[in-house]
Design brief:
alpha/beta, Methionyl-tRNA Fmet Formyltransferase, Chain A, domain 2, Aminopeptidase, 3 domains
């Protein structure tokens, strides 16, 4: 039997190696760019296993090959995103690892095997249990071909949690706060956190007693700043074409990647353009571009859609503005904002921009730096 493995992280791979599921001779795909019909066709696998894979699988692959995915909820209860966290939030002490045939509808295919696992401990501890359960299920596939059974009952859909859901709600009871910290305690996920001014407090390694929680706390700025580079191009392009983002831009058209890449290369080489990337939670959080014109440095900002609502834009814009000012002390900053874009208007005002003029559909705001 020939199995192709699509593995997204090192923890899964380590567990599968320890269980002797994979070795140096195994066919493994670790990057979504490698998962093409052409490559799969050359391998001709009996099964394609997805022990941890969060990317979209091309339809021509799962329609032509037996693709087995694994879900950590007792299906059909818990179809959808963030199954571990949603199960804990709803008070469950255990869950099921289900191996199922991948179909067009998410988590709705027939189920081959089910394994119960406990939901106690940190997320890393839970993930190791899940991956060990997956390893045992794969062993079954390798020894015999199990028969799948259709899901029965009314499905209950889970909503994928966002980074905003990681913000600790201190109105909850101690057990709920403890659960929120431990269910995110892994390097694979952003931590549970709280905000205080320009800083974030991340929580990990929590322990609970009758009346208190002891945890490690990491204090850091909401966002860190660096110069943009060519490798950022595709992600910035994806943010630019987000439907909500396009509504806020002057040009609301979809931008093709080739056209964006050509523009991006030019901007990186332009001495009159400053391109800043903000990082938070180990990922790119947003981009600020400042183009020097005769009227001043014209500013635009765009945030990673996954991190909306986390109050990161204020720190990013402030830091980018002051970084630009250090190198261009004689330049003021301007921003042309659609009058309908209330969120951007509020953001720029909070950072220190003042209304300079109002036109039919657009307001112009200016930021002057105090002399030091």
């Amino acid at each position: 039997m020939k199995i192709l493995y699509c593995i997204q992280n090192q923890i899964v791979e380590d567990v599968l190696r320890k269980n002797r599921i994979i070795n140096k001779h195994s066919e493994i795909i670790r990057n979504r760019k490698e998962l093409t019909y052409k490559k799969v066709h050359l391998i001709k696998p009996d099964y394609i296993m997805f022990p941890h894979w969060s990317y979209i699988v091309p339809e021509n692959i799962f329609l032509n090959y037996k693709c087995i995915c694994f879900h950590s909820a007792p299906l059909p209860f818990g179809q959808g995103g963030s199954p571990i966290q949603n199960m804990i939030i709803q008070g469950f002490k255990e869950t099921e690892v289900c191996s199922l045939l991948m179909e067009k509808e998410l988590d709705a295919g027939p189920i081959y095997l089910r394994t119960k696992i406990k939901l106690s401990g940190t997320l890393d501890e839970i993930l190791v249990r899940i991956y060990n359960a997956i390893a045992k299920q794969i062993k079954v596939f390798k020894s015999k071909e199990p028969s799948p059974r259709n899901q029965h009952g009314n499905p209950y859909k889970f909503k994928r949690l966002t980074a905003q859901d990681n913000l600790i709600n201190f109105d909850n009871d101690l057990n709920s706060i403890f659960d929120q910290i431990r269910m995110l305690d892994s390097d694979l996920y952003p931590s549970a956190y709280m905000k205080s001014g320009n800083y974030m407090l991340d929580f990990s390694n929590a322990e609970i007693t009758n009346d208190s929680i002891n945890a490690n706390v990491k204090i850091h700025r909401k966002i860190s700043l660096r110069k943009a580079k060519l490798a950022d191009s595709k992600e910035i392009w994806q943010w630019r074409n987000d439907p909500l983002t396009r509504e806020m831009f002057r040009s609301k058209d979809y931008v093709e990647y080739e056209k964006h890449l050509e523009w991006f290369r030019v901007k990186l080489k332009d001495e009159n353009c400053s391109f800043y990337i903000g990082e938070a939670f180990g990922i790119n959080a947003g981009v600020v571009r400042i183009d020097v014109t005769k009227d001043g440095g014209e500013v635009s900002i765009n945030m990673n859609p996954k991190l909306r609502g986390m109050s990161l834009a204020t720190t990013l814009l402030t830091d980018a503005a002051h970084s630009f000012h250090k190198k261009n002390p004689s330049n003021e900053l301007i921003a042309n904002i659609d009058k309908k874009n209330k969120a951007s208007i509020k953001l720029f005002k909070n950072v220190g921009f003042s209304l300079e003029k109002s036109q039919k559909d657009m307001n112009t705001y200016r930021m002057k730096f105090e002399e030091t």
